[in-house]
Amino acid sequence: MNPYFCTLNWLKIKTFLNQIIHDKLPKHIAVIMDGNGRWAKEKNRPRVFGHKNGVTAVREVTEACAELGVSYLTLYAFSQENWNRPKFEVNALMSLLVETLSKEVRTLNKNNIRLEAIGELDKLPQKTHLALKKGIIDTQSNDRMTLVLALNYSSRKEIIQASKDVVRDIKAGHLTEDQLDEDVFSTYLETKKYPDPELLIRTSGEQRISNYLLWQIAYAELYFTKVFWPDFRKENLYEAIVDFQSRERRFGKISEQLV
Ligand code: IPE
Ligand code: IPE
Ligand code: MG
């Protein structure tokens, strides 16, 4: 990059960073990383080229969240609906996951970041599942931030599974119908260890949820940006957080009640 644009970019990053109020940071940010295919298409390259370049954005956002002090970052990496893509693309994504996981674990450890995952992990190809399990074990004692990958994830399936587990526990006498409330139900979800995300970011201009954390985002602030995922950088994250912090979260109340 030429030095003029470099300085300009640096100033842009600083401007957003300086606006962030550190004691009003979201504890948990969830991201729908979208637009890899369109990013590649714009460049007349195959879709997989977009997925490969999306790894840079994963690295940037993970690092930025850890530096800021965000406790949980959940990234939507592969939905159950994504199995319906051409086999070639699915295979490429699964291989890219193996490659990325084995390369990035060292950086995660250096940055004291723990890796975890949600989704039907045992239904992933064996190599991907093993790479993931290894990444999780190798980073399990890190405690600065938790990076959660949603892999082979379906929010509706998660809710159905939770409901079945609730029924099983009621039948077994471990839980009564009266005890079942929102907090208790949350403990049956795969995300039981994490607070609900306060901020959900989706890149690429699409404005939908695509079966992601449906229960958990009941009161999340939604932030949509046209930026394609492979172009998403720290400054884009800062911009989303500044936007989040400018919003009034009323949780059903009126402004005057929020002091
Ligand atoms: C997101 O980018 C990555 C995954 C869903 C795995 P896409 O591959 O959905 O890219 P677009 O939406 O087709 O541009
Ligand atoms: C959602 O993106 C899934 C991931 C980001 C992994 P998609 O690109 O698959 O979503 P739809 O199908 O366009 O809603
Ligand atoms: Mg997409």
In short:
Helix content is 45%, strand content 14%. The protein is an alpha/beta fold and 259 residues long.
Structural features, described:
There is one protein chain. The mean pLDDT is 97. 45% of the residues lie in helices and 14% in strands. Strands 3-4-2-1-5-6 form a six-stranded parallel sheet, with helices on both faces. It starts with a helix and ends in a 14-residue tail after the last helix. It has a domain at 25-154 and 197-245: Decaprenyl diphosphate synthase-like (Undecaprenyl pyrophosphate synthetase). It contains eight helices and six strands, in the order H-E-H-H-E-H-E-H-E-H-H-E-E-H. The protein is globular and about 70 Å long. It is α/β, with parallel strands linked by helices. The site of one 3-methylbut-3-enyl trihydrogen diphosphate has 11 residues, from helix 2.
